[in-house]
Write a structure and sequence with these properties.
alpha/beta, Nucleotidyltransferase, domain 5, five-stranded mixed β-sheet, 14 helices, globular, WH-like_DNA-bd_sf
Length: about 425
Amino acid sequence: MPVDDDVRPARRRGIDHASLPTPSAPPYAGAASRNTGSQRALRDFNQQRIREVLAGSGPATQAELARRTGLSTATISNIVRRMAAASLVTTEPTTSSGRKATLVSLNEDGSFAAGIDFGRRHIRIILATPSHTILAERFQDVPVGLGASEVIAEADRLLQRMLDETGRRREDLLGCGVGVPGPVDRRTGEIVYGAILPEWVGIHVLDRLRSTLRTPVHLDNDANLGALAEVTWGPHADAHDLAFVKVGSGIGMGLILRGELYYGNVGLTGELGHTTVVEQGQICRCGSRGCLETVASTSYMLDLLARTRRSDRPLTTADLVEAAAGGDPAARRVVADAGQALGRALASMANILNPERIIVGGPLAALGAVLLDPVRQGMHRHAIPAVTATTELAMASLGDRAEALGACTLAFQQVAVPA
C-alpha cells in the first residue's frame, strides 16, 4: 500500500556532520518498503513523520502539517486525533489566514536542546524545548582574537551556569546545535579559510566542541541557521525558496530552496560577502579585491563612522544602530551606501535563483527601513524588473537571536524521535 501522497524527508532537515561526507538517510527510509501492506505500520510511519515535523519546526496547524508531510488533511486529522488521545500532542483552536484552525503541539516530556551562536565578538546560548518554549537565554561578549579552545571553554562554562539556573542536567540535553560565522566544509567538518574567525581555521571544530561540551553537537554556518530559524521560529514557514542574509562583521547567506537548506557540493554556499562589487577595491581577508564585505560589513561601516567622531573608546555596532536610528546624518550615509552595495549583490543572486523572499538579518536588523530601503534601491537598479516585482524583501523577524534559535532547531532535527 503506498504511503499517502509522497514519501520525502521532513522539510529542512539539518546536516549532522557526525556522518560526513554525506548526511545520513532519513530514519524511516526503508520502513515503508519493509512494512508494505501493513495498515498499522503505515499509520505508525505517518505518525512518526508528524512527530518529526513538530519536533523540528515547533507547533503547527493541521493544514501546515499536511503541506509539510505531503499527507492529506483527512489523514492528518485522524492521526492527530489518535495522538491527542494518547497524550502525545496537545491541540487548541487558533486562526490561520483569517480562518478557524487547529494548532498541534508536542507534549512536553522534559526534553530540551541548546543552540549556540559563536560570533567574532560574542557567544549567545539558548535552551529551548521542542514546542518552542525558551527556557533560558544568555549573551556574553568575548575578546576579538581569542583562540577557539578558549572561546569554546567559555561557552561550556556559560552553558553549565544556564543548566544550573534552570535545574536541568547536561545528560538530559538532546544535543547542541552550533552556528559559526564562516563556511564549513562538510567533508571535514572544518571551517575553511576566509572565515571571520581566523583562529578557528584548520581546526576540527566539531571534535573540539563535542569533547568540551560532552553532548551531541551539530555544526553549521550561522547564516544557514538564520534561514532555518525564519522558517521554523519566524513567520516564513510557507516559503519554499528563501534567502537569509546576515550582515555583521562578515556577510553570509543561508539558502532554502524547495523547502530544504541548500548546501551545494561540499557545503560552501552562500558566501555573498565575497562577491566582487568594486573592481580594484580594497583587499579582502579572503585574498580577493573589492568584495562586498569591504564596503558593507559592520566592521567597514564602523571604520567610516569613527572618522567622524572623537571618542576615547572604539565604536560598537550598538553605537551605529543608535546613531542611524536617531537620524545622525553621517551614520545614515554609511548605512545607506552599504545597503545599496548589498542590494546590488542581492540583485545578482536574485537574477540567478529567483527566490520568493529575501530576509536581511544580523545586528543591524533593528534599523528596519533605514537599512532596507537602500537595499531595495540597489536591487531595483541591478535586478531585472520581473525579479524585483516578485521577490519579497523583509527584515529578519527574530533580530540577532535568529542564529541561536536556528541552532536549537538543528539539534531537534537531528534527534530520531521515538515512535
